Amino acid sequence: MPVIADRLLAQFEHYPVINLAHPPAADAIVILGAGSYFDAPEYGGDTVSRYALERVRYGARLARATHLPVAVSGGNPAGGVAEAYLMRDTLQQDFNVATRWIEPHSNNTWANAHASRALLPSQINRIYLVTHAWHLPRAIYAFEHAGFTVIPAGTGYSLAKHINPIDFIPQPRGLTNSYFAIHEAIGLIWYRLKG
């Protein structure tokens, strides 16, 4: 049921939303990939998934508010064009935001962090990390381990809506959010174990 799944996911969503009127100082914005939408007929080919689009959209909003350079990170775990290239194209074509750095090789959050550290200039240390709110604890852990100082820039909060009676009826959204909650819990434990 969504009402339970949303609460499971919400335990990871404890970072505050950034005040874009007074954003904290940073050196760059890093947007993490979240999958591809392959052979999208309405776009004439591959593009970002709906989850990646949420991240790209918020990253574009943050870039316009801060005027900081943008990095995108995401490989191609399912084959095809790397997510980073699709994110770059979406940022430019749909949001008129340029991408400074493209990291197209990583296929998970840990690799995103370490490949981004290797790619970005050494003076880029304090970053806005754009990902889903429920993904932030694991992503922050990985990026801090890689040597960044992270300003959490979450989007897609699961509890950004009021509870409706329909939330007490089993729905696919409940299964999806339960999956994300379990995935994040296991991933965070794994990252802490491997150090």
TrEMBL record:
Ranges of residues in domain DUF218: 27-187
Organism: Sulfuriferula nivalis
InterPro entries associated with the record: Cell_Envelope_Assoc, DUF218, Rossmann-like_a/b/a_fold
GO CC term, one of those recorded: plasma membrane
GO BP terms in the entry: Gram-negative-bacterium-type cell wall biogenesis; peptidoglycan metabolic process
CDD domains: YdcF-like
Protein name: DUF218 domain-containing protein
Pfam families per the UniProt record, alphabetical: DUF218
